[in-house]
Write a structure and sequence with these properties.
The protein is of the alpha/beta class. It contains eleven helices and 13 strands.
Length: about 350
């Protein structure tokens, strides 16, 4: 197959691209390489993907090509789709970060709304057989019922970032309905692992503990997260790419799940399905580093939620896969990478 992966220099996009190429697919990756976090990390990920830029027929390895391109470049995205004729699109590029959205809302309108629309238009005009795109567990917002199910209401986000991700789901549904484009949205739950983002807690905690700095613990440590290792995320993404939603002529708004439709449209949670307390995750990092962290306990931060907890049976039914990497295994993998990458 020929895939487009947006955000290929990003954390999840990098790992998904590796997996697809290793399976023999050809991948065109795009990214605007913005400076939301260290561009050198993004360039290092792309350097790792260089091994897929030369054909290896004997190992049935796919080819990778990178194009620097911004999602908001309407003409550029349209030309890319027209020239390449992708079979499938995995749309992972977005302006990430909950807290950043409080201070920089326009960045989210551009990347997450306009950018999502240019991808939908590219799929509409070029007969893409399946669009898989990143949503987020943040769409559950004020929901206190656990585990979070795709049948739950997601109409009360607590950050603009979450609102844009809910908007992406609505936009995708309209295109599935109007133009018969199969779309699948994946609500990611707290992804971590090697090559992870510097603005996320696992990276921040590890860096500060090794540097002898104090780590901030929000809500005095009384928070729960469904930490999901990137290997499990990638396996789910790649498998669901082969599960193309079809129209369900029996589906009705009044009685049907909001995660499906009479349009070729689907939504899944993709998480570990077993949240742990924030202090437990910190303890796993401390144990792996052999260092006890200095801690500053503070109040809940704007845009944060108390708990995330994924109900993942639908994804298992569709793909036959459930997350397998334990927190201890995942933290060990991440810390090993961090030490090697930064020569710690």
């Amino acid at each position: 197959m020929k895939y487009l992966v947006t955000g290929a220099a990003g954390f999840i996009g990098f790992h998904v691209t590796q997996k697809l190429c290793a399976q023999g697919h050809d991948v065109v990756g795009i990214d605007n390489l913005n400076d939301y976090y260290d561009v050198n990390l993004k360039l290092a990920r792309l350097a790792e993907l260089d091994k897929f830029t030369v054909s290896d027929v004997a190992n049935k390895q796919g080819l990778f090509r990178f194009i620097k391109l911004d999602l908001t470049n309407r003409d550029g995205i349209a030309a890319l789709f027209s020239a390449e004729k992708f079979d499938r699109v995995i749309h992972l590029a977005a302006q990430a970060g909950v807290r950043y959205s409080i201070d920089n809302p326009m960045a989210y309108a551009d990347s997450n709304l306009i950018g999502h629309l240019t991808i939908l238009e590219g799929c509409r005009n070029n007969n893409v057989e399946h669009l898989i795109y990143a949503s987020s567990s943040s769409v559950y917002g004020l929901n206190n019922k656990t585990p979070f199910s795709t049948s739950d209401s997601v109409d009360h986000p607590v950050s603009l970032y979450a609102a844009t991700k809910k908007s992406n789901e609505l936009m995708a549904h309209s295109y599935s309905h109007l133009y018969d484009i199969p779309t699948t949205g994946l609500r990611f739950f707290t992804v971590y692992g090697s090559w992870g983002r510097p603005d996320m807690a696992p990276y921040i905690f590890t860096k500060k503990i090794l540097d002898g700095e104090t780590i901030d613990i929000n809500n005095n440590g009384d928070m729960w997260r469904d930490f999901t290792h990137v290997d499990d995320i990638v396996e789910g993404v790649v498998r669901i790419a082969n599960v193309i939603p079809a129209r369900d002529t029996e589906w009705k708004v009044e009685s049907g799940s909001p995660a499906s439709s009479s349009a070729p449209y689907a939504i899944y949670n993709i998480g570990h399905g077993s949240p742990i307390n924030l202090m437990g995750f910190v303890k796993a990092i401390e144990d792996e580093l052999g260092i006890e962290a200095a801690k500053n306990f503070r109040a809940m931060q704007p845009g944060d939620v108390y708990q995330t907890f994924a109900e993942v049976n639908d994804l298992f039914d569709a793909t036959g896969y459930k997350s397998e990497v334990s927190v201890e295994q995942g933290v060990a993998e991440f810390v090993t990478w961090y030490k090697e990458f930064y020569n710690k």
